[in-house]
Design a protein that fits this description.
By secondary structure, the chain is an all-alpha fold. The chain has one helix at residues 4-75. It is built from 1 helix and no strands.
Length: 76
């Protein structure tokens, strides 16, 4: 037979589990917001780096083409 102490212990564990579940939802929401903000910042930095790299490659290719046309004209 279940006595009063057992019923009290079960009720206490149930209440603490419910409180813990609520706290987890709040923490998860904050964590999600933080991760989203960091992801957006990281994506923006990656886009900037990509633009800089592509611009450097295009400038290098233009310089290469200019050098090739100059050497081809000298060779004639």
């Amino acid at each position: 037979m279940i006595n009063f102490k057992t019923v009290f212990a079960i009720a206490l564990l149930s209440a603490s589990s419910a409180a813990t579940a609520d706290e987890i939802v709040i923490d998860t929401t904050d964590l999600h917001a933080t991760i989203s903000a960091q992801l957006a910042e990281g994506l923006e930095l990656m886009q900037q780096d990509l633009n800089e790299d592509l611009n450097a490659i295009l400038v290098a290719q233009k310089d290469e083409q200019a050098d090739t046309s100059v050497s081809a004209q000298r060779a004639e």
